[in-house]
Amino acid sequence: MDTRLLRAFITLAETKNYREASSRLYISQPALTKQIQLLEKQLDIVLFERGRHGAVLSDHGRALLPYAEHTLNHMAELLNQAAALRETPPLSLNVGFGIATFHEASFFVARLKEQLPNVTILLEDMPSHVMREKLVQHQLDIAFTRSDKQNSVEYLASRPLKIETLALAVTKDQQPHSTINDYLAQYPLLMLRAQRGQGLYQQVQHYLQSENLHITPRQEASDIQTLIALVAAKVGISLVPYSAKQIGGENIDFIPIQDNANAQWQVDLVWQTTLPKTWQSLIEKLVEETSKQTITHM
């Protein structure tokens, strides 16, 4: 059975929404619908009850979900062991990164390409929670992602890369204020959608709660680039990773939030331990180089 069908089943069961599930799987909604229909045909069972509120598991679907998860996990273990036994190194590497690591990922991949000139390196921008899912499913080899020590996985290795902090994005001609809270009190807040960036959304919420601020966002966006464009258009202000200044326009200031642990988080570089040992040694070396280069760049 095609594992893509099982992954589609599990993801739709988690999200209960075709739009969100297709976004997580990086496929179109019609493609997701076809995959679910094909799986239902193969199993001769209706897995979902479709309605105005999305997709809800049927009784049969609810009964089969744990078996699908179990099968997919065992398939990942099979691929893991096969990769460990394989003598021939992979021909390509899939690398994931987020906007907060745009500079670090670019530097790292350039240096990695110098050392592995015959390997195709595919670099893709995606949220941390998506990177984590793809790492667990062996769809990513390396990821620049938010640290997640509470959910460690045996076949993944990680090294700390940097500490990121929230920053307030404002236009240069907005009236200066002495504190971040003064800005937040005067201007509408723009935020990233929770479904798109769970980690950043939660980080912003933790910061606002620590400051005892109860703010309803004026508008939400699907990516940080759109948030910055809205700030530039003076729709409002936004809390984004300080590293987003690298894609900010000339008329935008990024004010880092200092002395608040709720506004900071650790970014790790994570990789599959099934990669060749020599490659893993190279990755560890390049993590150190990238960390030093980040400090110099900032």
TrEMBL record:
<dbReference type="InterPro" id="IPR036390">
    <property type="entry name" value="WH_DNA-bd_sf"/>
</dbReference>
<dbReference type="Pfam" id="PF03466">
    <property type="entry name" value="LysR_substrate"/>
</dbReference>
<keyword id="KW-0238">DNA-binding</keyword>
<dbReference type="GO" id="GO:0003700">
    <property type="term" value="F:DNA-binding transcription factor activity"/>
</dbReference>
<protein>
    <submittedName>
        <fullName>Cat operon transcriptional regulator</fullName>
    </submittedName>
</protein>
<comment type="similarity">
    <text>Belongs to the LysR transcriptional regulatory family.</text>
</comment>
<dbReference type="InterPro" id="IPR005119">
    <property type="entry name" value="LysR_subst-bd"/>
</dbReference>
<dbReference type="InterPro" id="IPR036388">
    <property type="entry name" value="WH-like_DNA-bd_sf"/>
</dbReference>
<keyword id="KW-0804">Transcription</keyword>
<dbReference type="Pfam" id="PF00126">
    <property type="entry name" value="HTH_1"/>
</dbReference>
<dbReference type="InterPro" id="IPR000847">
    <property type="entry name" value="LysR_HTH_N"/>
</dbReference>
<dbReference type="GO" id="GO:0003677">
    <property type="term" value="F:DNA binding"/>
</dbReference>
<keyword id="KW-0805">Transcription regulation</keyword>
<feature type="domain" description="HTH lysR-type">
    <location>
        <begin position="1"/>
        <end position="58"/>
    </location>
</feature>
<dbReference type="GO" id="GO:0032993">
    <property type="term" value="C:protein-DNA complex"/>
</dbReference>
